[in-house]
Design brief:
about 70 residues; mainly alpha; Arc Repressor Mutant, subunit A; two-stranded antiparallel sheet; about 10% strand
C-alpha cells in the first residue's frame, strides 16, 4: 500500500478537530472567511485560512471570491 494514496489529503484534512468543526459549519451553506474567523475567536485569521487551505486541497471545500470577500 502506497503512502502517497490519493486519499491521503482527505484523511489529513479530517484528522484535525478544528477542520471537522469548520466542515460542520459549512454543511448548512457557504460562509465568508471573516464569518468563520468570528466563530473561532480562539484562532487567528491565519490559522483559519490554513485550515481552509487544507480542506480545499482535499477537495472538501470550494472557495470563491466575490469582490473583497471569500466564500467557502
Amino acid at each position: 500500500m502506497s503512502s502517497e494514496s490519493s486519499d491521503d489529503p482527505v484523511f489529513k484534512a479530517l484528522a484535525h478537530h478544528r477542520r471537522r468543526e469548520i466542515l460542520d459549519l459549512l454543511k448548512d451553506g457557504p460562509r465568508t472567511t471573516g464569518t468563520l474567523c468570528e466563530m473561532f475567536p480562539d484562532m487567528d485569521r491565519c490559522t483559519v485560512m490554513q485550515h481552509l487551505k487544507v480542506l480545499e486541497e482535499a477537495d472538501l471545500v470550494i472557495a470563491r471570491k466575490e469582490g473583497r470577500e471569500r466564500w467557502n
